[in-house]
Amino acid sequence: MSINWPFAVIELLIMQVVLYEKPLPYSMIINLNLWTKPILAKRYYTKLWSLCSMIIAFPVEKDEGLNSKISMHFGRTRYFAFVNVEENKVTGFTVKQNPYEEHGMGDLPRFIRENGANIIVAYGMGEHAIDFFREYRINVITGAMGNIKDVTEAMLKDNLMVDESWKEKEDFKHKD
To answer: In angstroms, rounded to a whole number, what is the distance separating the alpha carbons of residues 113 and 154?
Structure first.
């Protein structure tokens, strides 16, 4: 009998959550996701997602609570919103002003990491920022539009729609 190891590990993690009644840290899901996603069945991934705890960061145009709209430009945002999620429910929310009027390479990803985020959800973002987030093991979702409440709910229901062509828009084309 052969054992499908990724699925066996996932089943053990789910049993751990059920037995100890504590959410999984999101970093565990990301680490697992790095080597299982190509073969991971959607039902397992969705089930694990609903059991984890995480902080989702969003660059936002204005501080309007959960109705804040995602900023079109990650690097030019005035505020960042941080949404705490446990067991597929929003448990907390804060908005912080961008501490950098002029930022250097890596400043904003470091600020996001220092605020405990596991995921950054933005519309547009430069490749250098994406590389820093990967280095910090923070998942990057780009092409997201709308307000934080709707985007968070869509993420938690696993039906977030993103604009995959955001890089092709004139504002995001890099000029040499």
So the answer is: 23
Question: How far apart are alpha carbons 142 and 111 in whole angstroms?
Answer: 18
Which domain does 45 fall in, by range?
Answer: 5-50
In total, how many domains does the chain have?
2
pTM of the model: 0.72
Instruction: Please state, as a whole number, how many other Cβ atoms lie within 10 Å of the Cβ of residue 69.
Output: 17
Q: Is residue 113 domain-shared with residue 86, that is, in the same domain? A: yes
As averages over each run of 10 residues, the pLDDT of the chain (176 residues) reads 50 56 51 44 50 86 93 90 90 92 82 93 90 89 93 86 79 52
Tell whether 68 and 27 lie within a shared domain.
no
Residues 6+ apart with CB under 8 A from 108: 74, 75, 98, 100, 129
Strand 79-86, strand 89-97: pairing:
antiparallel
